[in-house]
Amino acid sequence: MLSYKHGYHAGNQADVFKHICLIQAYKSLKRLNNSISYIDTHAGSGDYDFKSDYMSKNKEYEYGINKLENYKYENQSIKFYLKVLRNINNSKKLSFYPGSPSIMSYLSDSSDRLLFYELHNNEVQLLKKHLAKKINSKVYNKDGFEFFLQKIKPKEKTLVLIDPSYEIKDDFEKVVKVLQMLDVAYQNVTAMIWYPVLNIENNDLFIENIRKLGSNRITRIELPLKKYNEEIGMKGSGIILFNGSNFLINNMKDCVKELFQIFKDENCNIKPKIQRI
Ligand SMILES: C[S@@+](CC[C@H](N)C(=O)[O-])C[C@H]1O[C@@H](n2cnc3c(N)ncnc32)[C@H](O)[C@@H]1O
What we know:
By secondary structure, this protein is of the alpha/beta class. It has a single domain (6-276), classed as 3-Layer(aba) Sandwich (Rossmann fold), CATH 3.40.50.150. Helix content is 40%, strand content 18%. It has helices at 13-30, 53-58, 65-68, 76-89, 100-107, 121-130, 144-147, 170-185, 200-211, 246-263, and strands at residues 37-40, 47-49, 96-98, 113-117, 137-140, 158-162, 189-197, 218-224, 236-242, 273-276. The strands form 2 sheets. It has an 8-stranded mixed beta sheet, with helices on both faces. Helix 1 crosses helix 4 (76-89), helix 1 runs parallel beside helix 5 (100-107) and helix 1 runs antiparallel to helix 10. The chain is globular. The structure holds S-adenosylmethionine (SAM). S-adenosylmethionine binds at residues 2, 4, 6, 18, 40, 42-44, 99-100, 117-120, 123, 143-145, 163-165. S-adenosylmethionine binds next to helix 7.
């Protein structure tokens, strides 16, 4: 039984970080390929209204997108992300936060193929409605972890976003297994796996398990927000990038430093990380 609802968290710091990276990952592949496939293994419902009950409960977006909305500096990845959000909203002032399906649906062109997996019944109905007119998109009410590899075509450049809710603890183990399978047999895939930093020991273990795979195609990008030894709550989040191009990694290097300055708590004693693992 799934109880996670992304609406409680939409637009928070982790969402901002993940969506900036997603946009840059798409751009990096489209520089060299006319068309790509995109697979979102954990898609959510599409859009999140700031006035909805979910969004207004914890107002996590106040620490995320709201802090970035008046961004005045020069980072091109951040500026482009804000432009995408405003274009999707059709307004300078945002009334809803677009999730990964909306962002990718906006960015893609008709030659791209977009596949979305969502297991939660209500979320999948909303997503189907949301994408009903998009002829390049398909939505599946199935387990994304289990089925997405079947959809990868050997000759097609494919971008995969794996964005589990980590409601179930084995999601961390599943991620490691997926990376192993990608590394063995999928040269044509770039994958982005989002993860929360919940406690330092488990985080180190997760990263160590990935390191033990011995792949030379994996980069860790981690954005801390709080001291890692605080007792409760999410301390930050990260992205495991599989087969990320230098263009993408370099763009994220500058961007993550700026996000850190904007989002971190004043007592945060950890630095952002971008490292091959
Ligand atoms: C973090 S949210 C997704 C947010 C979305 N990717 C975005 O960036 O806007 C995770 C979603 O995965 C769904 N989910 C959980 N386990 C799943 C599974 N095994 N397969 C597909 N969807 C799943 C949850 O219902 C939830 O809507």
